[in-house]
Amino acid sequence: MTNIFGRHQSGTCTYCHSSRRSFIGGAAALGVAAALFAKPSVAAPIATLIDTHHLFFPPAYQKAWLEWEEARQVPHFPSQVAWSKTKAIEAMDEAGIRAAVLSIASTPGVWFDLDAEKASQMARDCNDYAAEWMREKPGRFGLFATLSMIDIERTLKEIEYAFDTLRADGVGLQSSYGDKWLGDSKYKPVFDELNRRGAVVYVHPLVADCCGTLSVGTFPAVIAVPHDTTRCVTSLLLSGGFARWREIRWLFSHAGGTIPMMAGRIDAFYGKRPNLKEFAPEGILGELRRLNYDTANATSAPTIAALTKLVPASQITYGSDYPYFGLGQFETLEDAGLSAAELASIGSGNAARLIPRLRS
């Protein structure tokens, strides 16, 4: 989950204190699918789900983040401070999560106030920590490796290390870095390499530097976060990124932000461009339908209805946003009018297709 506190990637957070305080206060056959997701009579549900949106906090990262917040007098989020490996596994067992893909998705990623070298080292520390989990519990955890994206050469070296040494299942990126979204030409060498590898690229939004004060009195994550996914997807679309990197398997958080609602509008403005085939070979809606989307904090019936009008259930994975949100969100999906086969696909089948390590 990103920036549920509404923090910029750099600089002092001037708008998150009261909002954050208030927040704190405040398989495919139908028969098989029905068996997979039936609520058992025992206390712990059957472990069948794969969570593709599962945060973790290595000690070095946790320390740096808490110090970063303290320097800005930002209250810590209790579930982050209380997070531990033991608690995460216990929560997974209680919620019937068979496997989880670990990622560092919270703002400010591994940036903090670090220079390129230190940020790259932080990314390495996080990836090594997650790799230990994968070795200790084979089949229980996957990894979307963290990349700093500050220095391109260092980022390329981390891609090589993550895939060739750690056997990561993909990479985890933020929707924007400073004032650049992923469609920016700066990142072309990174995506060229990820495309060569046919990598899964998981993208998590944040409150971008431009937009933290555009929340009209709401908690910044309510509006700014989902819209940053939309900015990111649109930047990749219109820059020709999706057309160029056909081998990348994209996974966007939170049901694609506002993309399901904005897809028709984007198509209305760009769908009849003379050069459409150059940046959208399958048309605007066709390109958006090629992407994968998770359900983290996006399981309400209206949201799922909009998403499933844009893409089939085969393009959707279950995501929790743990520890910021609970692991029980799949129960809401069960009440969203999806078929048993669709629930089985979203609950584990699609994630297993993207991440073969986690096939049961």
Keywords for this entry:
360 residues, alpha/beta, disordered N terminus, eight-stranded parallel sheet, 46% helix
Radius of gyration: 19 Å
Helix content: 40-55%
SSE string, helices as H and strands as E: HHEHHHEHEHEEEHEHHEHHHEHEHH
Q: How does the overall form come out from the CA principal axes? A: globular
Rounded average pLDDT: 85
Q: Beta-strand level of the residues, as a percent range?
A: 5-15%
Structural class: alpha/beta
Main-sheet strand order equals 1-2-3-4-7-8-9-10
Number of helices: 16
Largest sheet: 8 strands, parallel
Distance between the terminal alpha carbons, to the nearest Å? 26 Å
Number of E strands: 10
The residue ranges in which pLDDT falls below 50 over 5 or more consecutive positions are 1-43
Break the fold down into its secondary structure elements and pairings:
Layout: H1 17-25, H2 30-37, E1 49-55, H3 59-71, H4 78-81, H5 85-95, E2 97-103, H6 116-136, E3 141-146, H7 152-164, E4 170-174, E5 176-177, E6 180-181, H8 188-196, E7 200-204, H9 220-238, H10 241-244, E8 249-252, H11 259-270, H12 276-279, H13 283-289, E9 292-294, H14 301-310, E10 316-317, H15 330-334, H16 340-354
Parallel strand pairs: 1-2, 2-3, 3-4, 4-7, 7-8, 8-9, 9-10
Antiparallel strand pairs: 5-6
Please explain how this structure is put together.
By secondary structure, the protein is of the alpha/beta class. The protein has helices spanning 17-25, 30-37, 59-71, 78-81, 85-95, 116-136, 152-164, 188-196, 220-238, 241-244, 259-270, 276-279, 283-289, 301-310, 330-334, 340-354; strands at 49-55, 97-103, 141-146, 170-174, 176-177, 180-181, 200-204, 249-252, 292-294, 316-317. It has an eight-stranded parallel β-sheet. A two-stranded antiparallel ribbon has the order 5-6. α6 packs parallel to α7 (152-164) and α11 runs parallel beside α14. The longest helix has 21 residues, at 116-136. The chain starts with 16 loop residues before the first helix and ends in a 6-residue tail after the last helix. Residues 1-43 have low confidence and may be disordered.
